[in-house]
């Protein structure tokens, strides 16, 4: 019976279905694991930008942003720039920004450089959420010509389903801010700046701290998905082994009984019937 069944049950439709499910599960785990590796690579790239640019010496903005309509993440993000000119127009609030343990908004104001170009600056966080009326005493940039240092950031994408309301915006989308503020002339449309300092200084919102150099748990998550494949493979193997033992149990029992019977006969010697059979054969 063992020879007839053996492992042939693995070719059954049921077990072929199990194998197909395992392959689908393994492919899904590989895709999820690779996705975590990609997230880790993005986090490490951001750490490299911080290390290379955050503490760099501030340079005039036109030295690093040669095309106002383009933004090079690796070369520009977090890099300090110097600007000279004056703040213009109203202050806008970029709502739904975390800070100081709650949700608030970032102060956004246009800055007109001496060469006539316009650059938007994030002047810090204030505890005003998007549901509140915009306070009249919001911090504004100092009047007159000043010198500003800011860190470059890329213009944020617009958020689907969310629009500007009065002086609040859903994201720091520079083209939208240009339209709201009615700014004319050439604009740094692909970037804005996070304020570092102003001279002369004025009241600002809470300026952000340096981001943490943390790549997150992506590596451990990625490895976990591959461990899940190994666990599933062991489980399939164990289930197959158990079914093999169950299906082949009767044959194994008969074989063991035959072996025990032969050993008993050897110990007792030939029976009377065996001797009669031998005499007839002779």
In angstroms, what is the radius of gyration?
A: 38 Å
Q: How many beta-strand runs?
A: 7
- Supply the helix-strand structural class: alpha/beta
Strand order of the largest sheet: 2-3-4-7-5
| Helix content percent band | 40-55%
User: What overall geometry do the principal axes of the alpha carbons give?
Assistant: rod-shaped
- For the termini, the CA-CA separation is 36 Å
Strand content bin: 15-25%
Provide the number of structural domains.
2
Count of separate DSSP helical elements? 8
Largest sheet: 5 strands, mixed, barrel
Helix/strand order, N-terminal first: HHEHHEEEEEHEHHH
What is the residue-mean pLDDT, rounded to a whole number? 88
Question: Segments where pLDDT lies below 50 for 5+ residues?
Answer: none
Key terms for this structure?
single chain; alpha/beta; 282 residues; transmembrane helix; 7 strands; 2 domains; 43% helix; transmembrane; 22% strand; 5-stranded mixed β-barrel; SURF1-like protein; 8 helices
Verbal overview:
A hairpin with a 2-residue loop joins β2 (80-99) and β3. This protein has helices at residues 2-5, 13-54, 61-64, 73-76, 174-181, 218-247, 249-268, 272-281; strands at residues 59-60, 80-99, 102-113, 118-126, 146-154, 168-169, 191-199. The model has no long low-confidence stretch (mean pLDDT 88). The chain has a five-stranded mixed beta barrel with strand order 2-3-4-7-5. The two termini are 36 Å apart. It has two domains: 1-54 and 218-266; 56-199, no CATH class. With 282 residues, it is an alpha/beta fold. Keywords: Cell membrane, Membrane, Transmembrane, Transmembrane helix. Residues 251-282 are annotated as: Disordered.
């Amino acid at each position: 019976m063992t020879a007839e069944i053996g492992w042939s049950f693995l070719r059954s439709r049921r077990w072929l279905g199990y194998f197909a499910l395992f392959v689908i599960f393994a492919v899904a785990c590989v895709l999820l694991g690779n996705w975590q590796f990609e997230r880790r690579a993005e986090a490490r790239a951001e750490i490299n930008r911080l290390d290379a640019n955050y503490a760099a010496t501030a340079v005039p903005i036109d030295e690093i942003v040669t095309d106002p309509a383009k933004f090079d993440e690796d070369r520009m993000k977090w890099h300090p720039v110097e600007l000279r000119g004056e703040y213009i127009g109203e202050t806008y609030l970029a709502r739904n920004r975390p800070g100081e343990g709650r949700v608030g908004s970032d102060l956004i104001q246009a800055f007109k450089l001496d060469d006539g170009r316009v650059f938007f600056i994030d002047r810090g966080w204030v505890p005003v959420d998007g549901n509140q009326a915009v306070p009249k005493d919001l911090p504004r940039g100092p009047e007159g010509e000043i010198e500003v240092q800011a860190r470059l950031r890329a213009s944020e994408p617009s958020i689907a389903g969310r629009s500007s309301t009065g002086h609040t915006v859903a994201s720091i989308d520079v083209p939208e801010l240009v339209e709201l503020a009615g700014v004319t002339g050439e604009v740094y449309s692909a970037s804005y700046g996070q304020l570092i300092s102003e001279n002369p200084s004025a009241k600002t919102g809470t300026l952000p701290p340096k981001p943490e150099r943390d790549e997150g748990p992506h590596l451990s998550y990625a490895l976990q998905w591959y461990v899940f494949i190994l666990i599933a493979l062991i489980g399939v193997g164990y289930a197959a082994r158990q079914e093999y033992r169950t299906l082949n149990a009767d044959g194994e029992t008969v074989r063991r009984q035959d072996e025990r019977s032969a050993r008993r006969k050897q110990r007792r010697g030939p029976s009377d019937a065996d001797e009669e059979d031998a005499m007839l054969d002779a």
